[in-house]
Amino acid sequence: MIYTNIALGTASRTGQTLAGIMAWMIEFLTVNSKPILQVLVLPGLAFTLVFALVAVWFERKFLARAMLRVGPYYCGGRAGVLQVFADFIKLFLKEMIIPDSVNWLFFALMPIMVSFVPGLALILIPFDANWVLWDIGSLGLPMFLAIMGIAPLMPIFAGWVSNNKYSFIGAWRVAYMYISGEIPIVICAAAVAIMAGSFNLVKIVEAQSNMIFAIPQFIGFIVFFIGVLIESERTPFDLPVAETELVFGWRTEFSGILFGFTMMAEYVMLQAWSLLFITLYLGGYSGPIIMGNVIGSHIFWLLAKFCAVVVFVILLRCVFPRPRMDQMLKIGWSYLTPLALLNLFIVLGLKMWGVF
Amino acid sequence: MPEPKIESEIMRISWGPQHPMSGQTRILLDTDGEKVHKIIADIGYTHRGIEKVLENRTLIGGIIPIERMNMVDSSNIGIGYVTACDKTYGLEVPERAQWIRSLICEMGRINSHLYAFGLQAEATAYFPAVFLWTTIDREVLLDLFEELTGARWSYNHFLPGGVFKDFPEGFEAKILEAVQYLRRRFKDYWNAMIENPMFEMRCDNVAILEPKDAIRLGATGPVLRGSGIPIDMRKEEPYAAYNSLDWEVITEDACDIMARTKVRFHEIGQSLNMMEQIAKEIPEGETRARFSPFSRAPEGEHITRVENSRGEMSIHMWTDGTTNPYRVKIMPPSLRNMYVFERLAELSEIVVADIPVVVNSIDPWYLDSDR
């Protein structure tokens, strides 16, 4: 009897505790639902993963048409939708081969860092004036550029730690390339900030409500786009992994899921840079409001512009061969940087004469 | 092969045989950063002793192994051996057979040059689009080959004294149709490759081979003609029906990678013209001279030189009165061009990124150079 009472009492007390926890969780989720949704879904985890999967699938099918092939055909129907998952499982289950001569901690850490650091920059992108995961006001643009400035260090270290000649050459190509690409990008971003009168990404978007900055700053628009291609190692500027020259550049020694992370990094970089590109030049999230839902339509417009930019970037892959390293540096230093400066002076002139 | 010593600032990279673009060879590169100081080609990975195999076969049985020297270009290899056999037996080849031989050779040349473009485009990382286009367009030629000879690769259609079979019914019309199609496609290739500014950037003024160096190093084929020297064995020592056909030797004066690529492009144009002419004007008559395949070859020594799609191939055939040849010495074009490739780093400045483009502008076929 006593035992039953104790048991019942314990049960009721446990029940109370559980109910309390549940109530607290529901309260926590309702109060903090937005940050949780932001971390897990939109600028956060799900967006990155889904983009990587969709982009890889689209790239395979789309490029296959250009090459008179059919692309993935058997796994997941004629559309090959399950092929990406199959590849992911394969990469995950494969043995990670770590060479004897390397520092294994550094070797295993670098590919993970290389895909996570550019992912961090995504939290600064405004999907709506009220849908920014980390709203730091006028530090938005400088912080974005600072985070993306750390990103190239990871491939350099990854190539260095691999202790392989091809990786080593690939790593130094990364270093050369980022320097020649980053400077025009920063100058162009400065011109945008001057025109908008703020470093705040939300204010930059709102300043484009009358006219997107791609029109007055057409030179900057083009230079920034080429810079984005250089920074995210997309063809025609995929020199660090040039598989016809350096077996796979700085990624040569990685295998299994570590290689998967390096491949993921390419898409995360593209995602972060093209979202900034849209925010600075194509009016960011602004667009006509659909069905009276402001946040929903803003998110829709940003994602629609993002898809258009990504499709264009992928299209370039079957049009251009890859330049050589010296030609790449010449493009960066002799054309992009002077053009970016010219764009900056045009913006200063427009500002001085009060056009904007 | 003894490995030369490495200086302290020089990094030696082994480019192949385990490399996406290298093919079945190993190329050692002495690099300082991106710059290549020295190229050492370590060929011989695919040596199969074809010369020795030929000694153990009858003359007519040798046609089969010798075509394995170069699979994309087997008709032009075969014509060299068969012409040597004709000379050995002293056979008079009928006119119609000569024209059919020329047709098969020119179709093989287009086939081989198409493959070369594909690799050239892939080496400049023109993401394999062009490579797959050329692969699909080769189907047109392979279908023609299949109908004429019964095989898509390695035709064995040439015999001493003629060819194995005459044209099938209505074959001329099919040739003309294929020529029309390929002419249309070549406009696309020209626009996609030669007129592409990025492709031009990669190929102009790279790996320059001056005419005097080309002669000194013994370059041959499109490499030699890309340096502006009009030497083509089809004109120098005409074989098959090249005397009766209207065509000219293509040369380019730029001496760089682009010049070699353009030479291949224009040569395909010439080959298409020849195909058209053959389909329209082929003479009637026999396709094979009377000849017993098991007869003993008379004693003698004969040299034939023919123009493969990679350059001049010479065959020195020495017979001693038995059914088998005593010795067959083959001088393949790829081997000669590999010597040129080794010296290119000394003649002009080459960086690591240029290596695949330079190799594919030389267009070596390692099975060919190793024999």
**Spatial extent as radius of gyration of chain B:** 21 Å
Largest sheet of chain A: none
CATH topology of chain B: Cytochrome-c3 Hydrogenase, chain B
Task: Indicate the proportion of strand residues of chain A.
Answer: under 5%
The whole-number mean of residue pLDDT values of chain A reads: 84
Quaternary form: heterodimer
Helix/strand order of chain B, N-terminal first: EEEHHHHHEEHHHHHHEEEHEHH
Placed side by side, the strands forming the largest sheet of chain B appear as 1-2-3-9
Distance between the termini of chain B: 18 Å
* CATH level-two architecture of chain B: Orthogonal Bundle
Task: Give the strand tally of chain B.
Answer: 9
Q: Treating each run of at least 4 consecutive H or I residues as one helix, how many helices of chain A?
A: 13
The geometry of chain B reads as globular
Number of domains of chain A: 2
Biggest chain contact: A-B, 29 and 31 residues
- Secondary-structure content class of chain A: mainly alpha
Topology:
The complex is a heterodimer of chains A (356) and B (371).
Chain A: H1 2-31, H2 33-40, H3 45-66, H4 83-93, H5 104-121, H6 140-150, H7 153-161, H8 165-196, H9 201-207, H10 218-231, H11 257-281, H12 294-316, H13 325-352
Helix pairs in contact in A: 3-11, 3-12, 4-11, 5-6, 5-7, 5-11, 7-8, 8-9, 8-10, 8-13, 10-11, 10-13, 11-12
Chain B: E1 11-15, E2 26-32, E3 35-42, H1 50-55, H2 63-67, H3 74-89, H4 95-123, H5 129-149, E4 158-159, E5 162-163, H6 171-194, H7 197-203, H8 211-216, H9 222-226, H10 233-236, H11 257-281, E6 300-308, E7 311-319, E8 325-331, H12 333-347, E9 350-351, H13 355-362, H14 366-370
Antiparallel strand pairs in B: 1-2, 2-3, 3-9, 4-5, 6-7, 7-8
